[in-house]
Amino acid sequence: EVKALATETAEATSEIETTLAALNEQTSVLATRCAESVSCATTVEAGSAELGTAITGAAAAMRTVAEEINGIAASTGEIQDQADNLMSVVKDMSTRILASSDDLDSARKRVDELQMTGEALINQTNQCGMETGDTATINVVRDTAAEISALFERAIEKGEISEDALFDERYQPVAGSDPQQHMSRFTAFTDRVLTDLQEEILRRHQQVVFCAAVDRNGYLPTHNKKFSQPQRAGDPVWNAGNSRNRRIFNDRVGLKAGSNTEDFVIQIYRRDMGGGSYVVMKDIAAPIHVRGRHWGGFRLGIKA
Known about the structure:
By secondary structure, the protein is an alpha+beta fold. It has helices spanning 2-33, 41-73, 77-99, 104-127, 135-157, 163-166, 187-204, 236-242, 252-259, and strands spanning 172-173, 182-183, 208-215, 219-220, 247-248, 265-274, 277-290, 293-303.
């Protein structure tokens, strides 16, 4: 019964993710329209109504999650404590979001908080030790992170790279690149030792959109081949989607994936593919340690 309820929880969470994506897009549209002329007021008003509908849907989805969590809590005391705390946060969040539908800036902030609450729910569900739809992917990420840790340590022992070079943070900008790319003292090394490993994961797991190692600052030296194409001069939109290697992803998701030291972390975000195109992604990351030092993390993305 616990496994079945956990599956229902995962489905409800998927509904939350979809609703959050729609909510985030509506918020962006309304924020832009508020800056336009008075003639756009009617459009803004209509958009606000849609935002209110989306927020109401989010609250309903959260209430569904609450019911499922209460069912799980009936079977295990440990989950009961977690569910009680989470329910309090979710109810408070839903109330504050509904109350701020007329304030776009405030609504955006609360949507971000709601997203983090949803991520916390996903992580807590997986950390309880129950089998979920993410379990197999989490295992791949953790195993690969451990493999990369061992690979880096062997390379240092063999003299292929020094520990100081592997932990280099003096990123050198690549002239003329847009978006900005950087080189480090370990970029050539990771190109040599990580490319085949990462490509093999893409080959074996068709649901994986991308996978790459990032250092603790979000610097991604070596990406998958399909995202490591040479940049086109004067075409930053194309570059943003196809030349993602050697980039520093210091946004919320990128930094958390690189700086996280927990066993694993799951995040939901909209991936910017350039030209106003976004894809809702589920990002799973596990830490990479080298000789007792935290180097960064191994990120794996699948469509949410």
